[in-house]
Fold this protein.
Amino acid sequence: MSAAAQETTTGGGESKHKHHGPRRPGYLKLGYHIVVSNAVYVLLAPFAVALALRASRLTPSDLAAARAYLVANLQLAVSLVSVATTLATVYLARRPRAVYLLDLACYKPGPEHVVTRETFMEQSNKAGVFTDDNLAFQRKILERSGLGQETYFPAAVLNSPPNPCMAEARREAEAVMFGAIDSLLANTGVGARDIGVVVVNCSLFNPTPSLSAMVVNHYKLRGNVASYNLGGMGCSAGLISIDLAKQLLQVIRPLLEYLLVLLVARSTPIQYGLEFMHA
């Protein structure tokens, strides 16, 4: 589940110049991945084709002869069927179970959190902790990052002067997490007590108690719930969270009903009283 609290708008026209450079071998990599991932089926495909061709050439007399042979060697036929059934059962039992996304919810703040780029720069100037070079760098990032004129920011950034403290950071985290989770539970009809695992990822804000513990305590999740809190790993940890959830569902699936993944993007801890280091 994603809990992003930002809406952006972008502008600019499309480039009229098309680059006709050499194509990247993306299709080759995709084909290689498909072949390796389905190596068993690729190896068995020639045998399946040969068997199908042989079966298409059978005549009624051939079928009658095969039936007579099986009746005469009933013990061998039963043994072959038993071996085939055992191998199929073992294969199906050891095969990783497919994992599906049940639903996705994204937190959207109220209209009081909508600001323009000019308002953000005005608030940064009021903070009194940034030099002229810092403010110029922030203005350059705003212009090039794609943030529009209806971007959401937390109350700590909108206060005059801004007060990015621990209390405001925790307040923002609670609003984002609980708002997204409430929407998700309402859309799916899943009860909070049905959640067996909670995975939370937030790079910048890692308080004690952890964000995952805040979720567990707020929704009164069951006593044997397993919670994982990932922090300080950047935005790429979102993919790590999804992969962790997938592996947990495949390993301990008999012990849980649902797994909740929470990806939190925080803005309050970004504004601190230190100079930006930039080239």
